[in-house]
Structures are given as structure tokens and as C-alpha cells.
Design brief:
24% strand; globular; alpha/beta; 6 helices; 9-stranded mixed sheet; Rossmann fold
């Protein structure tokens, strides 16, 4: 199954990706899946690596009317442009503000936004101002790397493990299982403490193919739809078959 099918995309969406463990790969895979008759614009409210310009041409924010004109040219040719505010060191693109996302929304059928950063780690503890989810978001995709399961709660594997420890009641150094991750996501002070009203929430457990034995005591049955989460998807953003299981 395709990611776009599993997400059950509506006719027009702003999709924000949060969490860790493959957000960027998932976002660009989805961008390539969406049929060419739809206009797709990609951006970030944090930072991402600059993608290949052959597939995803770069547009830097300036005057909105000029940006819209540049986007229209790329979209007319069937490309999926990426918008940022400037280039940083280490081949990174600086993000735009949530307000700018709202302004550019009218240029696209689908706006894909990386709205979180995790230092390349599969799990993170969020500060009060994170994630940076634009108010026009209609679908939030929480990404968790399955390769975190069975690892220890420390800075080698978790961005800000002290926050995760405080919110979940697990000690630093304890083994991470699905129960810990579910508790973190559902915590009233966690990443979903505040998000746009009406936005749907989907949990994507990425890199599931990296688990040596999916039934190996990871408590995967803790990953079930709940009060906030509409569905749970197990898959691999870079796999030949990106979606393996969908729970609703």
C-alpha cells in the first residue's frame, strides 16, 4: 500500500510531520506518490537538508508575490518545489514561519511541512515551543523510528532523554518499549498538548523492517488508535512496500 492511501488524503491538505526517525524521508516519499495533476509544495518550520534540485527545486522566501510566481512556474512543469528562508551551513535549509506557510497554502493542493527536528534520532522530548505546527494543518503525522525499540533511554538514542524520562516516569537508562513511546505521545504535556483544532492525527511507526523480530517483546500492541490518534501505520519510508499494516 502507498503512504498516500494509508493516510487517506483528502482533496486538499496541509500535512505536518513531527517526531523523529525518518520524517524527511517519509515527507519526500509522499510528495513523489501524489499524482502529478495535484500541486505539491514542500517546506519546513525548522531545518532540513537541501534535497536534490533535479527533483525538488529550491525557492527562497522573499516577497510573497515573487515566491508565488516562482512556485507557479515549477508547479506548471510538474515539479515539487521546496520553500525555505535561507541556506545554512552543512547543506541545510532554514525554515519559514507558520504564518508564511498559511500565505503559501493557496499555491498548492498539498502542502507538506516538516514541523519538528530531532537531531537525526528516532525519538525526542519536546520543549514548550515544539513542535512548530502551522495553524492551517489538517493532518499531523507523528513519526517514530522502530529502531529505537529495545534501546536505552539516553542521549545516544533519544533527543533530550531527560524530558522523556520526566513525562513517562521511566528512569534514564531504562529499556525503551512501545509502552514508553505511547505514554510519551499521549502525555498532556507532550507533543500533542496543543495542535490545530480539527486536525487529524496519524502515528507512523517507521523502519519496522529493521526489527529483527517484530514479535520480540516490544509490546507493539501498545500502538493502537486512541483519543488523539486516528490510526497507526507500520511501514518503512524507504521500503519497496512503504506501508505494511494499518490499524484504525
Amino acid at each position: 500500500m502507498k503512504i498516500s492511501e494509508a493516510l487517506d488524503l483528502k482533496e486538499s491538505e496541509t500535512i505536518s510531520f513531527v517526531g523523529g526517525g525518518g520524517k524527511t524521508s517519509l515527507m519526500f516519499r509522499l510528495a513523489e506518490e501524489i499524482p502529478l495533476q495535484y500541486n505539491v509544495v514542500i517546506t519546513t518550520t525548522t531545518k532540513i537538508f537541501v534535497p536534490s534540485p533535479e527533483k525538488f527545486p529550491l525557492v527562497l522566501m522573499g516577497r510573497v508575490d515573487q515566491v508565488e510566481k516562482e512556485l507557479a512556474g515549477y508547479l506548471k512543469s510538474g515539479m515539487r518545489p521546496v520553500v525555505g528562508s535561507g541556506l545554512l551551513e552543512n547543506n541545510k535549509l532554514d525554515g519559514i514561519s507558520p504564518g508564511q506557510v498559511s500565505l503559501l497554502r493557496r499555491c498548492s493542493d498539498y502542502m507538506l511541512v516538516e514541523a519538528d527536528g530531532s537531531k537525526g534520532l528516532p525519538l525526542k522530548g519536546h520543549l514548550d515551543y515544539e513542535p512548530v505546527i502551522p495553524g492551517v494543518t489538517t493532518l499531523i503525522v507523528i513519526v517514530v523510528g522502530a529502531d529505537i525499540l529495545g534501546k536505552t533511554l539516553d542521549s545516544r538514542y533519544v533527543h533530550r532523554p531527560e524530558i522523556v524520562s520526566r513525562l513517562t516516569g521511566r528512569e534514564i537508562g531504562s529499556v525503551i518499549d512501545a509502552g514508553l513511546i505511547a505514554d510519551l505521545i499521549e502525555h498532556p504535556q507532550g507533543m500533542l498538548r496543543e495542535y490545530p483544532p480539527g486536525a487529524r492525527v496519524v502515528l507512523f511507526i517507521n523502519k519496522i523492517d529493521l526489527l529483527p523480530d517484530p514479535d520480540g517483546g516490544y509490546n507493539l500492541d501498545c500502538f493502537i488508535p486512541g483519543k488523539k490518534i486516528e490510526k497507526v501505520i507500520f511501514g518503512s519510508a524507504i521500503g519497496e512496500e512503504p506501508v505494511l499494516v494499518v490499524l484504525e
